[in-house]
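Board notes (copied after class):
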Amino acid sequence: MSEPAHGGGPGQAAHSRPVPAAAGALPWHLRRATEALHTLDVNADTGLDSDEADRRLALYGANQLRSAPTVPLWRKIVRQFQDPLIYLLLAAIAISVLAWAVEGAAGVPVDALVIGAVVLLNGVLGFVQENKAESAVAALRLMTAANSMVLRDGQLKTVPSAELVRGDILVLNEGDSVGADARLITASSLGVAESSLTGESAPVFKDPMVLGGDVPLGDRLNMVYKGTAVAQGVGRAVVTGTGMDTEVGAIAGLLAAAEDAPTPLQREIAGVSKLLGITVIAIAVVVMATIIIVNGVSTLSGLVTVLLLGVSLAVAAVPEGLPAILSVVLAIGVQNMAKRNAVVKELHSVETLGSASVIASDKTGTLTRNEMTICRITTASGQVELTGVGYRPEGGVLHNGNEVPDPALLREARMVLAGGSFANNAQLREHGGEWEIQGDPTEAAFLVAARKLEGVTDRTGEFERHGEIPFTSERKLMSALARHREAGTLSLVTKGAPDVLLKRCTGLQLGGEVVPMDVERRARALGDVEELSSQAFRTLGVAYRRYTEADRHEADILDEEDESTLVYVGVVGILDPPRAEAASAVAEARRAGIRVVMITGDHPLSAARIAGDLGIAKPGERAVTGAELDALDDDGLRKVTRDTSVYARVAPQNKLQIITALQAQGNVVAMTGDGVNDAPALKTADIGIAMGVTGTEVTKEASNMILGDDNFATIVSAVRQGRVIFENIEKFLRYLLSSNMGEVFTVFLGVVFAGAMGLAAASPGEVAVPLLATQILWINLVTDSGPALAMGVDPEIDDVMARRPRQRGDRILGPRMWLGILSIGLVMGVASLLSIDIFLPGGLVPGGSDSLDVARTAGFTTLVFAQLFNAFNSRSETTSAFRRLFVNKWLWGSVLLATVLQVAVVELPFLQRAFGTASLDPGHWAVCVGMASTVLWFDELRKIVLRAGERRRGVQARG
């Protein structure tokens, strides 16, 4: 239906500004379509021209809801210093400068300058990390931006919905997301889902005719609104409002006020950071009190030294950079996934993706190629098999695995393919090395098969078409009239449902002869069809009729009566073949503890056949149909979904039933979808996966992830990548927390055992501490961000698909991980303190004769190197650090850079003055490296014990 709507100018020159309904003007839904077109100065038949569209876009801005104001650069910089721990450091700087001034302001306040430099560098690193994460998120939004079809320059064009302007002619099709508010011009069975605006669950059927009076939003049948979805039908509309000047824009303030809830991973990391902060500050207070009591500190200088040490310890031990590093690691991981055709729309969806325990997949195009292929031809003389799959015309014809020995069978097979190719409206063509089809995929299958058997295309080329009886669902047949180019003879070629076709046949092709179709031959032909159907093939029969001189006049006007007295030639078995990589992907998913479920609208036999071939279903398992699901109660549905792997002939509500039932069993469900009716189930699933090639805009918007190639193997690959990303998060958490614990143990135990180590005796009149405040801050600066970020992009070390999915309640920091963190931290602390003891006289290890500055530098260096060794330990909880040791160039680069910087801070005079270090000779360096390596050897022994325990549990489980 439509309202005459050709008004409006061509949209060529500079125009007066098209405006929405102004004060006193009629609202758009009370205007005729012609009036709307005139007001917006556009022609309904050609649309805006591109220049005018660009002008309006520049004038009125993008079609986007108002987002939070962009944070200015200066505010981003200031934000890096808005942290309680930074406030502590700034307070420490102020106290240090005050003490320096009180004591005469001799020289420069070295401690204050060094701490200030560290604060500044930390701020720069945080700023860079935040910007990188924001850039990654912006890139993802660009990749998943919605598109709309419009009429511009007299042609249909697909443009980003953000570039729609008032006056654009929207072309609406089923599955489209409506990109802007618009007044309908034409509509045909156009149903729009407006629940996002009105709460109405059923689609609203639209009518472009003018309304008689003002009505509520839900009754404005001649309008479509931004953010709604076309459930069915087609239509055209002129855009009347964009951006904030839309109905959804009116509630944008409420949308902006709503904040996304943190994910479980974000909450856990925030909790860990808070717990560590409280714990370490308490420890720092205890350490400062202990130092003051043990050393009898009473001078201002001594108190400042103790305060700086405590503050530095608190700052260094709390991984305040965790959220920033987490965002960067997720962003890099998601960008890498996008390069592999899996576009994850939200960074933290990776957390759920890696935990998926069920993948509910469609069949057509995801598990299969979506390329109908003729695999069998059965005629009166037997059956042949066609090799090759898809639309590439490569393959041959075999009989029982060998060349076809029977000329009669070969002749009949040629006639079947020639007939199916002639009574055909599809096209097959090569474009850029790839074969493409236009038209019905089943008809295209004949064109592909014809090129596999020599002589078929030559045979069809001898005839020209002179008429057609189109296919209808009632007749289940399609016929074409063929005229021989040289002889001028006429024939009718018919193809269609074999059971219907056989009823119209009186003859049977047997080699080069036609024999009568008696009862026995008809029964045998029907048996051949049933045999192919039982193997899940779709079947199409081919027959023909030759016109004689007597009935030649009948061919002038074709009708259904011509489809009689046909000669039956044979039947083809057609299959949408599985993707070559699908079976291995299903096996990989099962190995990872992920259950694969097929949900399709296809025939139950076809679904069961493909599911069995791919290893989704057990041998002999049948498909459960949507009708059977409808008849179940809750208990029955629970039992069926627990045991069934194949569902066929399902409706959209059945998909929702299946997903909800699987989730109720504690599963994390990933589900694929392409049609508009899949959107509710995609929203309900833990991970909704939209098809990027065949999917509608609505499903893409409803999803969490979009497949660039519609391939099931890409889903499994994305799950692997999700698990790798999550494992890398575990790696840098293990590294950061254990390294920070090493600093805490070094300072705390150094203060407690200062007398036994000779540390107190080596610093008469001074505060006896194993590390200076500036040295602790240096360690935090050099060893934290670089290696942690490098571990965030670490290649897969352990086989992540060899373990079960994470359960919903699993914590990333479990008891075993905490035990490892604390034990590694303790070994670091002991190794660092022993290095000091070795070089100091009067300690537990006899023979030391170096100064306090040299010994402290050795302990400081040992702790830095121990953390760098720990970077390699932390790449796996149980696998040796020596496995795939050199695969991460970024980790080696960060370790090398940290080593160079440590050598510089020890050996360069100006850094020695700033950080209180002294030069070390080769013997000192060797001891530092050797003591630091004890962290590596201890963890290797710990991993041997853990692996032995896992093997023992595995043997017990199998027993």
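Comment from the instructor: The longest helix spans residues 712-752. The first strand starts at residue 147 and ends at 152.
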